[in-house]
Structure to design on (205 residues):
């Protein structure tokens, strides 16, 4: 079978406190099924502008921070774009990288179920941006269907367990209110989410 490739847009090293425990490197990959109004970078959506790497090639670039990862309990966070579009690649990367590295994935969960299944054993922490749990708000902001995200979230909560799922709940200027945000948090707690992060999108136009 051909080696899976990762469409790398950027690497961001030596991050702390933003995407999981310890010191992390964020590997941003291209491609996303959603079209959010405030998406920070249209380049995230377009694979044509990315460099394609095998898992061994990406690993070679990330090893420079091996000691930091091991000393702090950190590792690699796959982001994007939509990281789980590259679930097969992430699984391959997990097989090759040091076992001590923690692997996180930033995701909207707006992906087919198979991708969440493929990522299940490879990813230590799923960082889910749920947008809003109200289906109309979700569709209005992303153009996508919130039902898919919700079903995948239920799947992860059941199979990975709530300790491996952090759900970020944004206040989205022009699309939801603080009350909507609270309602989303209540719904998520009722679904069994234990790790929640409420925050505000900062818009730079
Ligand atoms: S999910 Fe993220 S990458 Fe995709 S369109 Fe929305 S903001 Fe952009």
């Amino acid at each position: 079978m051909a080696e899976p490739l990762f469409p790398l847009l950027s690497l961001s090293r030596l991050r702390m406190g933003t995407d999981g425990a310890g010191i992390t490197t964020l590997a941003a990959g291209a491609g996303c099924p959603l079209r959010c109004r405030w998406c920070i970078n249209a380049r995230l959506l377009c694979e044509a502008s990315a460099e394609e790497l095998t898992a061994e090639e990406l690993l070679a670039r990330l090893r420079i921070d091996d000691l930091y990862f091991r000393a702090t309990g950190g590792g690699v966070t796959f982001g994007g774009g939509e990281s789980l579009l590259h679930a097969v690649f992430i699984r391959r990367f997990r097989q090759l990288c040091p076992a001590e590295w923690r692997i996180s994935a930033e995701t909207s969960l707006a992906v087919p179920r198979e991708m969440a299944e493929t990522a299940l054993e490879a990813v230590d922490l799923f960082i889910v941006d749920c947008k809003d749990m109200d289906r109309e708000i979700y569709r209005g902001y992303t153009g996508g269907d919130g039902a898919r995200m919700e079903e995948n979230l239920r799947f992860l909560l059941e199979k990975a367990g709530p300790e491996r799922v952090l759900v970020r709940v944004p206040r989205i200027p022009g699309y939801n209110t603080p009350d909507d945000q609270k309602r989303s948090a209540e719904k998520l707690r009722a679904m069994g989410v234990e790790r929640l992060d409420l925050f505000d999108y900062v818009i730079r136009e």
Q: What stands out?
A: The pocket of iron/sulfur cluster is lined by residues 32, 34-36, 39, 44, 80-82, 108 (CB under 6 Å). The two ends are 44 Å apart (CA to CA). Residues 6-31+41-200 form a domain with the TIM Barrel fold (CATH 3.20.20.70). DSSP finds seven helices and eight strands in the chain.
